[in-house]
């Protein structure tokens, strides 16, 4: 059974999808802790499911590196196999990444390498793209530059508002993340091999 730590900053819709998947006894992963950088609304999903959670606020530390060390220490206590950044709206410090990667994955609302960064949906619309989507990738020390694991495409409708497109991307993101974690747990997706091939 793959032991997951899930990191969030907001409503936790991806966390909720993983919790629901893990309720099925045939799903090969379990969430052993949920961490956040703020008092995120999504922590309620962890509480409802009886999953331990913790908050490590960057404002409580003198530097990003110190915050990252505290976050790593909190995760380490749970002896996890995979860290899932599921809406954590912060760039993880290099020391944190080097400790957990390649067993450190993220979802991104674009078809990477297109439209990296915090405003991927807005950037796709501004570029006049007719298609975007979602990527699950390994986190490396760059911003959205790690090896791609899985992708799902979403067509962009003419005149579509950013918020509407983002919601349609999220609808693809949740099952893609659940399926990717399943593949990692079952061994059909080998993170170390993918990372080595990317170098």
Name the strands of the widest sheet in spatial order.
Answer: 3-2-1-4-5-6-7
**Number of H- or I-type helical stretches:** 7
Query: What is the percent of helical residues?
Result: 25-40%
> Strand tally, please?
7
Topology pattern, helix = H, strand = E: EHEHEHEHEHEEHH
Average pLDDT confidence is: 96
CATH superfamily caption of the largest domain? Formyl transferase, N-terminal domain
CATH architecture label name of the largest domain: 3-Layer(aba) Sandwich
Shape: globular
Distance between the termini: 29 Å
Give your account of this protein's structure.
With 199 residues, the chain is α/β, with parallel strands linked by helices. It has 2 domains: 100 residues, 3-Layer(aba) Sandwich (Rossmann fold), CATH 3.40.50; 93 residues, Formyl transferase, N-terminal domain (Rossmann fold, 3-Layer(aba) Sandwich). The chain has 7 helices and 7 strands. The longest helix is centred in the C-terminal third of the chain and has 25 residues. The radius of gyration is 16 Å and the shape is globular. The two termini are 29 Å apart. The mean pLDDT is 96.
Keywords:
globular, Rossmann fold, 2 domains, Phosphoribosylglycinamide formyltransferase, 22% strand, alpha/beta, 199 residues, 39% helix
Q: Helix and strand layout, with pairings?
A:
Blueprint: E1 2-8, H1 13-22, E2 29-36, H2 43-49, E3 53-55, H3 64-76, E4 82-85, H4 94-100, E5 104-108, H5 120-126, E6 131-138, E7 148-155, H6 162-186, H7 191-198
Parallel strand pairs: 1-2, 1-4, 2-3, 4-5
Antiparallel strand pairs: 5-6, 6-7
Helix pairs in contact: 1-6, 3-4
